[in-house]
Design a protein that fits this description.
- The protein is mainly α.
- It is built from nine helices and four strands; from the N terminus they run βαααββααααααβ.
- The chain has a two-stranded antiparallel sheet with strand order 1-4.
- α3 crosses α4, α5 runs antiparallel to α6 and α7 runs antiparallel to α9.
- The N and C termini lie close together (8 Å).
């Protein structure tokens, strides 16, 4: 007798296993807990230093690609040893708002997009493929615009490290690492925006993107900091809602109705 899968309520069984979506939700939760735990560990600044550089690369590359898509040019992209960065661009006047917004919102969009990897956990080696793509992206950004020595070294080391993780990690570990990097981008983007809000509300602190926006578009820096924060929260909420909704569709409404004949 041939074995068959019967699901009450009719309809053909889905090809994607519900356990895969549940597993990835667990990976996201674990990645979030690991990230939060690292923040409170002694010497966490040293442990998180490579991740800080990674997020800064994403932030600065957001400025760079915003300049390119608006018809501008990228002069250089620099990452500093303290984890800060600066990108020199030239762009049409109408697109200054897009280039200046590309840092914080670009980082958020990058992290929110990576969260969607969980929707494709049924695809073979999706975690490894994601890590390979990120490694290639960092290498491209570094070689195109990283003209100072530290940026070149940091970009090459990070790219090589991600490539090695993709090459030698088991598939499930690679999926966790992809989720971990997604969480890092999202939480760091929100953390940086929180700091930006504090700086702009006090009217003190170093030059920042919100201050540059106010110089071109008159509205005060706090307005831009609030606007970016609201947009970042909106993107993350939409990404999580989209993922959880997709994951819910793969879960049987009545697991007890599953049986084999």
């Amino acid at each position: 007798m041939n074995d068959k899968l019967i699901l009450s309520g009719g309809g053909a069984p889905k090809r994607r296993s519900p356990a895969l979506a549940t597993d990835f939700r667990g990976l996201l939760l674990l990645a979030s807990l690991v990230t939060l735990g690292l923040w409170y560990m002694p010497y966490s600044d040293y442990l998180l230093y490579p991740l800080r550089l990674f997020v800064t690369f994403i932030h600065e590359s957001g400025h760079a690609f915003a300049a390119l898509i608006s018809g501008g040019d990228v002069k250089s992209l620099q990452i500093h040893t303290d984890g800060s960065g600066v990108t020199m661009t030239s762009e049409p006047f109408w697109s200054i708002w897009l280039v200046l917004s590309g840092g914080y919102l670009g980082t958020t969009l990058f992290g929110a997009s990576m969260l969607q990897v969980g929707r494709f956990s049924h695809v073979r080696n999706v975690g490894k493929t994601t890590l390979y793509l990120i490694a290639g992206y960092l290498a491209l950004v570094t070689l195109l615009w990283g003209h100072n020595p530290f940026t070149l070294v940091a970009g090459i080391v990070l790219s090589a490290g991600l490539f090695a993780l993709a090459r030698f990690s088991p598939p499930r570990v690679a999926e966790f690492l992809a989720a971990f990097l997604a969480v890092q981008c999202c939480l760091n983007a929100l953390g940086d925006l929180r700091i930006l809000l504090q700086i702009t509300s006090s009217g003190q602190g170093p030059d920042n993107d919100a201050l540059f926006m106010s110089q071109h578009y008159l509205l005060p820096p706090i307005f831009w900091a609030l606007l970016w924060s609201a947009m970042a929260l909106g993107m993350l909420t939409l990404s999580l809602w989209s993922y959880l909704r997709a994951a819910a569709r793969t879960t049987p409404k009545n697991p007890r109705a599953l049986s084999t004949l």
